[in-house]
Automatic annotation (TrEMBL):
Record GO terms (molecular function): thiamine binding; thiamine pyrophosphate binding
Organism: Bradyrhizobium centrolobii
Pfam families: SBP_bac_8
Cited Gene3D superfamilies: Periplasmic binding protein-like II
Name of the protein described by the UniProt record: ABC transporter substrate-binding protein
InterPro entries, alphabetized: SBP
Keyword 4Fe-4S tagged: no
Domain of life: Bacteria
Gene Ontology cellular component list: outer membrane-bounded periplasmic space
GO BP term, pick one: thiamine transport
PANTHER family on file: ABC TRANSPORTER SUBSTRATE-BINDING PROTEIN (PTHR30006:SF2), THIAMINE-BINDING PERIPLASMIC PROTEIN-RELATED (PTHR30006)
Amino acid sequence: MAPLVQTWDPKPNPYAAVANGVVDLGGGYNARAQTVSKQNPDRMAAAMPEEGSISQINTINLVNGSKQPEAALQFMSYALSGETQSRFTEELSYVPTNKNASISEDARKRTATTPERMARMIDVDWIEVAKFRDKITEQWRRNVISRS
């Protein structure tokens, strides 16, 4: 499987830039920001804008033609269980996908799971965004990143 794995590395890294004092504000993902702020509590804090935020959705999928579909399904069942989702939220600050996940008040404060924050989440039509994403990304790279 290793030769087929790809990864995404966000560059520039807004979390390091904020934690190191290079910039005062950076946009990013809550779970990653929570991890960095936990490691650098005197230099960084994660926050959700009062105007709201969007959800970034992670998926877990069975690959067509998998040589071990039963094992894959067993892992998926484990990963999506209430107990595992609880731990995922408590340890990594990701919002659980299982409504039966038991979440502490502390973890709720670090995620968008409070009723107040959920009410401020903004729906995005990602199919529509995909139509113009490359154009915006190219403009951002050319006009913003190149000047930093």
